[in-house]
Amino acid sequence: MPIKVRIPTPLQKLTQQQGEVQVEAGSVRQLIAELEKNYPGIKDRICDESGKVRRFVNVYLNEEDIRFLKQEDTTLKSGDEISIVPAIAGG
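Above: the chain sequence. Below: its structure as tokens.
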């Protein structure tokens, strides 16, 4: 079940400059594990040491924030799109 994952520019150096990648996974947790397997180092940028998505990283499933779903346990199906969006601070 291929899931399209949009990779933000700061993480594209880990995905060989690809802005989108395809991953097979049944949950967000599995998707992150597959990303790490294919692109070592990406999980540390997305997740904290306990495996939770970092506070300053937003993950959207089909434009809905996974924090309002089941977070890392959110179920995925073929054709879903995940967007990883780092928070931007300014002042």
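The longest helix spans residues 28-38.
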